[in-house]
Specification:
mainly alpha, 192 residues, 0% strand
């Protein structure tokens, strides 16, 4: 007779995400995960598989969470410029009480050169954010808010690169006032 789980799978997955985000993949051991998640090693393996499989699930959960937060924040804005500013503020100010930086950016730097599946998951997250920016910029161009002299996709590439830079600098605890100054200057590329 199989034993029932004595833990909330979603809750322990979030704990694993927090630990991987803080320490990175390589530095996080199975013992660290067992201790931080508060479950037995056997339960970890039975529920999530090995460390790499658990990490892939963490990346998926992280991406879904960020996509949801971005979409709901953008839905509350009244203009394309407000939507872009929301994205910039979100990337600068961080994700509430989470570790600094971005799990996808950290992962791309740490693992993408050695693990194409994990690298592709990080790249998909970047692609999603860049497409979101492109869609916002197209709406802003159609509404007359943004320049139409530059391609929306190229503007999105430029702004996304700035957003990624914010997440890297946030990991290094760069002053947020400096990042907001960079954001203001970066957003001038959208001006008519």
């Amino acid at each position: 007779m199989a034993r029932s789980k004595q833990f909330d799978e979603n809750e322990v997955l979030l704990k694993a995400m927090q630990l991987f985000w803080e320490q990175g993949y390589e530095k996080t051991s199975m013992n660290d995960l067992v201790e931080h998640m508060g479950i037995h090693r056997r339960s970890l393996y039975d529920t999530f598989g090995d460390k790499r499989t658990l990490f892939l699930k963490v990346m998926e959960r992280y991406s879904d969470s960020i996509d949801t937060k971005l979409s709901s924040g953008i839905a509350r804005t009244d203009s394309a410029m407000q939507a872009v500013r929301f994205l910039f503020d979100f990337m600068i100010e961080g994700y509430e009480d989470k570790p600094p930086g971005c799990l996808l950016v950290n992962t791309a730097v740490e693992l993408a050169p050695r693990d194409s599946e994990i690298g592709n998951k990080a790249l998909q997250g970047f692609t999603n954010t860049e497409q979101l920016l492109t869609d916002i910029i197209v709406k802003g161009q159609q509404a007359g808010e943004f320049t139409t002299e530059l391609d929306a996709g190229e503007l999105a590439e430029h702004l996304h690169n700035t957003l990624l830079g914010f997440r890297v600098q946030g990991r290094a605890f760069v002053d947020k006032d400096k990042l907001h100054r960079i954001a203001r200057l970066s957003l001038t590329v959208l001006n008519k």
